[in-house]
Amino acid sequence: MRLWPEIQKSSSSTSKGKLTEIEDLERQTDRQKMVVQKCINGLLLIHFLFMVIVTPLIDIGHILTWYANNENGDAPSSIKIPHFAVFLILFEHLLVWPLCIANFYGIFKGKSWVKKTCLIYGVGATTAMAAILSEMIRSSGAFSTLSSIYVPFLGFALISTLNGLVPNY
């Protein structure tokens, strides 16, 4: 009779040991996921800071083509912009640029709603980049040089979309 309580104690201590090992593994994987999430948020923070500063400067030059002279033959002003691209630039200023500001603020301050705004930004920017890249593929002239500019933005848009889809850690 005395052996039975000792066996129960030893079996309960081994089950507690297994539970603590499992909990430790879960904590370790959660820490690893948090580190990956922090790295992605840091990368996106730099991207959104860049987008907040540079987007108005570049897009104003495309929208105000009447102001830019074509006398010097500058590449940005000599390229005729398709009508859908002007719409995408306006779309960028009305939706994407404010989302960049919101995402920068949300990531910087650690707000809980930043996942949703990253998802909205990522889907909108991916759609715009898909239209731009498909037009560049159809016109063979400027694909090699411009693709090196637009493909990283597509990558950041996809990272932002995936960041919006994964849960918080």
From TrEMBL:
TM regions (residue ranges): 43-64, 84-106, 118-137, 149-166
Primary location recorded for the protein, binned into one broad class: membrane
Subcellular location: Membrane
Topology class, membrane: Multi-pass membrane protein
Keyword Transport attributed: no
Top-level taxon in the UniProt lineage: Eukaryota
Residue ranges occupied by any EXPERA domain in the UniProt entry: 40-161
InterPro entries documented for this protein: EXPERA, Sigma-2_receptor-like
Cellular component terms (Gene Ontology): endoplasmic reticulum; membrane
UniProt keyword list: Membrane, Transmembrane, Transmembrane helix
Protein name stated in the entry: EXPERA domain-containing protein
Organism: Papaver atlanticum
